[in-house]
Amino acid sequence: MSPLPLLLLQAGAPTNAWGMVRSGGILNQIVLVVLAVLSVISWIMILWKARQFGAVQRQGSRFIDEMERAKRIEEAMRALMALPDSPYGRVFRRGINFFSDLRPGVLQGQRSGEGLSLTQLEALRLVMEKEEAEERDDLSRGLPWLAIIGSIAPLLGLMGTVIGVMNTFFGIAAAGSANIAAVAPGVGGALTTTVAGLFVAIPAVVAYNHFAAKLDFFMSELEGFSSEFIGALAREGRL
Question: pTM score, two decimals?
């Protein structure tokens, strides 16, 4: 055994992570408890968002497949009724309902299309953009928590380390001893909070960036679908 571990064993110093936690002092332990709570919240958010985005991806793929098979807006409306509710379906339904309010009976073939004015067309676009914004707000719920946890967890860990090191130096000053056996336990216990902070922050930051990229992708798809919807109305002579 090398001289340093032997010296620590002789001095009764902690030799494992749990011993370092116990030797870190009450403030360090409070920081570790807070980090443990943040870690639980972070993983709950990660699992929730993974399930939510996975469901949206499956719903979107099915919706797009049905819309590609439909040759006219009326066929797309009938296909929509058989599909589960999804952000894509809600955007489509909002656009259809607003168009039907502007031109009652046109989509049902009860009257010929008279076309929309530029003001009405812009209103239709704004209505669909509002629905897209609502869908974005719904999908982004929980993501700020991941960003917050990813930001504050390393800072909490660093704060615990600084507090632990300060307590160690105060103990050295009071005991009048500065040998390695006196310093190592306190410093080791202090560093556990930094490790814990990084352990909490890294998954939160990775998950936040992953879900933010997925959110941007879905919103790009929704915006593209809205443009295709208005284009289909124009192609069929509804505008």
Answer: 0.77
